[in-house]
Please model this.
Amino acid sequence: MSCVDAARARIRHVYDTFDTVCVQFSGGKDSTAVLYLAKEIHEERGLGPVKVIFRDEEMVSPLVVDYVMKIRDYDWVDMEWYCLPYGAEVWILGRRESAILWSQRRKDLGEWVRPMPEFAINATHFGLTHEKPLPESVDYYTMQGKPGRVAFITGVRANESMIRYRSCVQKLHENYIVSPYKMKKGIPLKFAKIIYDWQMDDVLKFITEEHGAEYCPYYDIAAMTGSNTRVGIPLHSVAIRRIGDVIATEPEFYDRLVEVYPRIDSQRRMWPDFDVEALIELYSSNGFDGAGKFIDEFMMGPSLQRRARAFVAQFRNKHVQDPHSYPINWLIRNLLLNEINITSASPIGPGTKAHAVRSTEIVEVVLDES
Model:
């Protein structure tokens, strides 16, 4: 069975199992492939327009926004476009700060990257305001008003990251149907990752050859310029390391980001000479006290600091049990470079830069002792 036929079997199972099925659409190539898989089954079963959910993250590529707007106008698409206030990260040379997307405060300061579409579903539709971030997860709100058991079909592929791979191998049966992160118990929502075993070539071939359809033009520009092929906010700790790609693909978008966050131009100019290893060594040499000092100096705002300290507490417990897999310099590396996920402090893995550093240290200790 080909991966495409396997995905077709999975999506049929999803529609057989759940009362309401929606495509969670980002404008990226993977969610575009999922959208056309859903189109197939809707035509096969006479289900009418495909229900689509788009979570507008405000600070996204204009090319992506234009593409999503085009998809929204298709007569076989029934799209809900959400502009909700929730937290995003701005990472500049190791320093993290929070930004609330579509917040009233940022609007008053002229810091919205672009205007909110008039037709968008916003916080006021749920009896909330844009003064504060949502009290529940975004998925909690986007599933409101949808009857019965609900499934959101996503474009997650396992080969994109180890975290995405692990999310698809946690169950023996229906491994591609999972619960959303941080969703309250009792909320009848699941994610269906029906193309988890596809490669990028499978995605592009399916869209262009099997459906003769278009994907977002950003990918062609990214390919021609050698730029990042991930769509989404370009300011978090991973994407911003390639912030220069935004200049190569959409220079006017970059200019607008700099107007809102002038410091990101320092990130672009100084990152090639930024000595990550020296910074890690500086703070890790003081153990967990160094981690506390790092949080005080690099985490901007009380909410970020609370989350980072919770991560350190969890890491400390694992360090006590297995100090070789959870060394202090790995803790500082995570605080500096990675997403801070308080649910899973991961050990050093083979093939990582941290593992190479640790291996060198172990060899030096052995040589000294011999």
About this structure: Strands lie at 20-25, 50-55, 77-83, 87-92, 95-100, 121-122, 150-153, 177-178, 189-192, 299-300. The longest strand covers residues 77-83.
